[in-house]
Amino acid sequence: MREEPQILARWYDFLRYLSPQVAKFPRSERYLLGERLEQASFDVLELLLESVYAANKIERLMKANIRHFTIHDPKTRVISAAPYRDRVVHHALHKVLEPIFDPTFIHDSYATRKGKGTHAAIDRFQSFSRKNRYVLKCDIRQYFPSIDHEMLRGLIERKVACPDTLRLIDQVINSHEAATIPGGRKGIPIGNLTSQFFANVYLNGLDHFIKQTLACRYYLRYMDDFVVFHREKSFLWWVKEKIVGYLEGLRLALHEGKCRIFKTVQGVPFLGMTIFPDKRRLKKQNVIRFQRRMRRFQDRYGKGLVSSEHVHRSIQSWIGHAKQANTGQLRQVLFAEIVFRRERGD
Asked: Which of the chain's ends, N or C, has fewer CB atoms near its CB within 10 Å?
């Protein structure tokens, strides 16, 4: 059934959701954040009321203000950072669309969903590995840059009927400098909440194809990384062939160099860990990146360029992930070596 979400009618509810988020930030940052939130909210509301659906004004503004930068952690990717006002639009749009699409997602889709996430995906992966001898691990080549705009729009139209909402979705999608292909455009930016949501919508059909048509009981996906478990290796090779055919219909392709069948007892790399049926190991590269980050923090903290609160949040974030693996002794060794001191003035 197609639904007609009214963005303007739900705008007040969205602001009620955003406002309490200010309280989660350090006290020193709350005033500035609240001020930015208020101004951005009124700016966006004015655009929505006056011209969100006229002359593609928002689309032009978005294209003009997006900042692009490259990261190499752990692989090279181009990240697109929208300005604060546009991120408010993205969150508002996501809040409207999520209740419509999330019930259509399979249980074992774990990226950017309430109650899911990397830790839940890792738990589920290990649970499946205890019940199966083999796992097919797949990755889609250049996933975000390969998403076809017309196909994505068609998938959204199956559930959304409101013309104004669809027009705003078009403007958000087209704000990215996408590549032109025969019959349309492709590519959505990495880094936006809406992009992550649309990426889930785009592969939702694949999830149902694998679970229902191919009858794969032990399957899970985290964005464009997905795995199928089974007791027979020959069955997994057959599944891979079927997946390749299905992805061709979405103008996508597997990254052949990253698609392999593993024995579960030998450990399988997934979401930053090597997962065995009875244990988990943090990847060595993850530890090296954390050590490098701490050395940078030590230098910046010593010069007074970063606050202790900022350093603490970064450390706690890493600990939260590292605790999902068997890292008790590793953490003791690492933190015994880390000391933060302010440099004394002359």
From this structure: C
